[in-house]
Design a protein that fits this description.
The chain is of the alpha+beta class and about 475 residues long. The protein is about 70% helix and about 10% strand. The chain folds into two domains: about 200 residues, Up-down Bundle (Four Helix Bundle (Hemerythrin (Met), subunit A)); about 180 residues, Heat Shock Protein 90, CATH 3.30.565.
Length: about 475
């Protein structure tokens, strides 16, 4: 299996970390053993020094005692007492230092009574010199027991010293061996770390070079993508400009047609029969339908080009209702629909553009009228939230399939796209309405149960909330309505 460069760098780094951790552990263990060996050798050396201190204090006590016996001076007696006290103190210290090792402890314990006996004999002779004179002390000094106690103490000290020297030599060798092991481990660790660092550095350099190459390739791709996006935006702008121009060009002859139709109806060019009037009215109806389509296309072009002018102001919901009733009432009455508004009060205010809100609500109510069967119901409910007002337009029509709820807000999309569909229109109304709602800081959404009606919710900022608390519309890099409609 071939590893990628990133995997090689990761493997080298991981191996280096493991190697350093292993070497560090071994070094820690080796240094720990070296420290133990060094401490043991130091303890043995301290015991040897304490043995010499004890021997020196014993010799000082013997010399001070002889000087006192021969001269009888009080200063020599004081020297003797000090040396005897120092010897006892050195013996206690030696017992403490040898207490960790069983053999050494036994030897020091066997030395203690012999030393006590020897120091006691020296003190007894010194007391004889003080109480009975030189002759009595001289006779006592030639006693074999005194010489024998000194020899026993000297022999025990010699044996203990010789044993400790052997132990010290062994521990010194152990210390040297541990130091050698620690040096080897550290040398191997440095070598392994150097090799791992060299390999990791080489792979990192290769990795960075590859990353740089990829970044250059990505920059080239992004540049090409930006160029393609710019070209697409130019093409989309050309489409929008063309659509706007064609719409204006179509409106001009339609306006003239509408004017001549009105003149014909007024009888300016003579009277007409009932059949001619009927045909004239059909022409006028189709002219109005065509004009409505062209107006939708113009609105779509303005929204898509982000050229919609908004006049944001406080707008009472009551004014919205009064503005749409004259427009929608004929269609509502023609289908005998139950139509009602439900508002919490006449003081409910939104912050929006009056004409844009009227256009959105008229579109929603008109759609509800188109799709609601005769005798059905249309309810407009106003709900006041913390910072928004929701206008919910609910109908009892056939409903919208769940998979098409998002698609209905795309341009040129209708639920019934057949050649014989029952409702007319361009499929732009909802797309334009949603964009207008979002431009005013709100939104437009839909919920529906297929076969059980639909609810379209227009959300707008409240007009009685401080301006700083009202969320502002955020410009996004979303595709244009034209591009969305062509997907």
């Amino acid at each position: 299996m071939t590893l990628t460069l990133y995997e090689k760098v990761s493997l080298n780094f991981g191996s280096g970390v493991v190697a350093v951790a292993l070497i560090g552990t071994l070094s820690y263990v080796s240094l720990g053993k070296l420290a133990i060996a060094t401490r043991s050798a130091g303890d043995t050396q301290a015991v040897l020094e304490q043995v010499e201190s004890l021997r020196s204090s014993i010799d000082d006590a013997g010399m001070a005692q002889r000087d006192y016996v021969l001269g009888g001076r009080a200063g020599d007696l004081e020297r003797f007492e000090n040396a005897r006290t120092a010897a006892q103190r050195n013996l206690i210290r030696l017992q403490d230092m040898a207490g960790a090792e069983h053999d050494s402890r036994n030897r020091v314990d066997s030395l203690a009574p012999a030393l006590g006996t020897h120091l006691g004999e020296l003190k007894r002779i010194a007391m004889l010199r003080q109480q009975r004179g030189l002759e009595a002390a001289a006779v006592a000094m030639h006693d074999d027991d005194i010489a024998g106690s000194h020899d026993r103490v000297d022999a025990l000290l010699g044996e203990f010293r010789d044993d400790q020297r052997v132990v010290y030599a062994s521990r010194t060798r152990e210390q040297a061996a541990r130091a050698g092991d620690a040096g080897i481990v550290l040398a191997v660790g440095l070598l392994v770390s150097f090799i791992a660092a060299a390999l990791a550095l080489a792979n990192i350099r290769r990795y960075l070079a590859d990353r740089r190459k990829l970044e250059l390739q990505r920059a080239a791709v992004l540049e090409q993508e930006q160029a393609a996006r710019t070209a697409a935006e130019e093409a989309n702008r050309a489409k929008t400009d063309f659509l706007r121009m064609i719409s204006h060009e179509l409106r001009t002859p339609l306006t003239a047609i509408q004017g001549y139709l009105e003149l014909l109806e007024m009888g300016i060019y003579g009277s007409m029969s009932e059949e001619q009037v009927s045909i004239l009215r059909r022409i006028e109806s189709n002219e109005r339908h065509l004009l409505a389509i062209i107006n939708d296309l113009l609105d779509f072009a303005r929204v898509d080009a982000k050229r919609v002018e908004l006049r944001m102001a406080a707008l009472p919901i009551r004014d919205v209702r009064l503005a749409i009733d004259p427009v929608c009432r004929p269609l509502i009455d023609s289908k005998q629909l139950n139509y009602a508004w439900h508002t919490p009060g006449d003081q409910l205010i939104v912050r929006a553009d009056r004409e844009k809100v009227r256009q959105i609500v008229v579109n929603l109510v008109s759609n509800a009228c188109k799709f609601t069967p005769r005798g059905g119901s249309i309810d407009v409910e106003c709900v006041c939230l913390d910072r928004f007002v929701e206008l919910r337009v609910t109908d009892t029509g056939p409903g919208i399939p769940a998979q098409k709820l998002d698609a209905i807000f795309e341009p040129f999309v209708q639920l019934d796209n057949g050649l014989t569909r029952a409702t007319a229109g361009t499929g732009l109304g909802l797309a334009i309405s949603r964009e207008l709602a979002r431009a005013m800081g709100g939104d437009l959404s839909a919920t529906s149960s297929y076969g059980d009606g639909s609810t379209f919710t227009l959300t707008l900022p409240r007009g009685d909330v401080e301006a700083g608390l009202i969320p502002q519309p955020v410009a996004t890099a979303a595709p244009s309505l034209w591009e969305a409609g062509n997907h």
